[in-house]
Amino acid sequence: MIGLVAVTAAGRSAAAQLASAWPGEARAYEGPVGAALAQAWDECDGIVAFLAVGATVRLVAPLLADKASDPGVVCVDEGRRHAVALVGGHGGGANALAERVSAVLGASSVVTTATDAVGIPGLDTLGWPVEGAVAAVSRALLDGEPVRVQADAVWPLPALPPNAGAQGTATLLVTDRLVAPEDRTAVLRPPSLVVGVGASRGAPTDEVLALVDAALADAGVSPLSVRHLATVDLKAEEAGIVEAARLRGWELVTHPASDLARVDVPNPSAVVLAEVGTPSVAEAAALAGGTAELLVPKRKSVMATVAVARHRPRGRLALVGLGPGARDLVTPRAVAELARASVVVGLDQYLDQVRDLLRPGTRVLASGLGDEEARARLAVEQARHGHAVALIGSGDAGVYAMASPALDVAGDDIDVVGVPGVTAALAAAALLGAPLGHDAAYISLSDLHTPWDAIEARVRAAAEADFVTVFYNPRSRTRDWQLPKAVGILAAHRPGHTPVGVVRNATREGQRVLLTSVEALRPEDVDMYSVVVVGSSNSRVVAGRMVTPRGYRWMA
Q: For the Tetrapyrrole methylase domain, which residue ranges apply (predicted)?
């Protein structure tokens, strides 16, 4: 819950705007400001105070406990110009809350957390537990001091700055192993461990936890690296297991017995097979769901069984569409994924557009025009090595772009995230008016990947079905006859005055928008930087804009 505290009419108006934008998530606190702020502090995860920074500092100072439990506090000024992350930038979520407030109110977010200010990921923002000299190592990263990074495996983390490498007086360990704390050493705990649990009906929670703790300690691994507890679905409601997971803050994952029966384990049991339909619960549940090694074979107490497995990291591949070219049409999700990546792969001209959005230390793998398949294979290979990879392209990654060749070679051994982008067709349509108001067909006229006979058959089908037709890759210096041929096919099925829109460099420098007709279209006005939109027989030009009605009766 986000608490909203305001004392002036302008503040209450802004608070009401936030409450409207976040229904069910934000609550206004009324009454004397000190009491309202104190109540919100006790009840909310974040607070937006429509007060001066100085006044808010004095009011919250007696309430401060520690950054692990304090809510994030954002101050907004009377004129809605600034949203200042005041308390709990990372741990309390104030930095992110300031960005959200700014997006609704049109303010500028003010974030003073050092790592955020210079684009370096804070060690406490990675979603993993971190121990040890966190402040000292973070300071070393910020100051450009050499920091030694030592990891047991490659994990899909965001890029660390260039001063993070093989040498340094400060150290960042990425490990699930129990290690003796050292000065100037921070330990980042990856979610590498899965604890498989079986239990008899009525097994006490204390017995389950004691067995789990002993298994982890004997293996020399940290409970902070436990990804989840796992068991067979028949035990999904077993109170001792459920409560053990809740007390430790671990997710409880259950598997069907039939799935666990297919997992190869060193210690199968005919008795367990007869009772629950799988020869193993603890070992199979610990190993299920990935490539894993068994660290602790099953061990038993009176009523419980436990096993521990270490899972191999899964790399991450984000397929990111950058939109048609304008920076304000790059989606916030795309920006977040670029910051999330440690490796970015793409065409050199697209990478040049977004280099300022990459974190310091990001490894950039650029290549020239052509050979999209090689770029896709490179990105997938990097993800298979465990990295967080962003494969970028213009428009939407799934529309005549990089998602298809990448997913054609990607297996189930990596995680894949699709990030939608604004396509060239959508950008062109917005500039032309509303030409895509009804059914439309998208056809590439490039015969580099598709035989012309197949392209021509698709154009004929679109013509006969009276689709609005969008042509990608319409004309190049060596392919100059395909566009006239395609438009001629469409012309046989619709009037010569049917509108045609040609948009070159949509939203980019050199943008040009031309509205013409089927009979008047000049192929020389079109090149590979253009998108051609040919209307259906119902498309019209209204007040200089191309419009296709939504299937309702057209009103003249």
A: 316-521
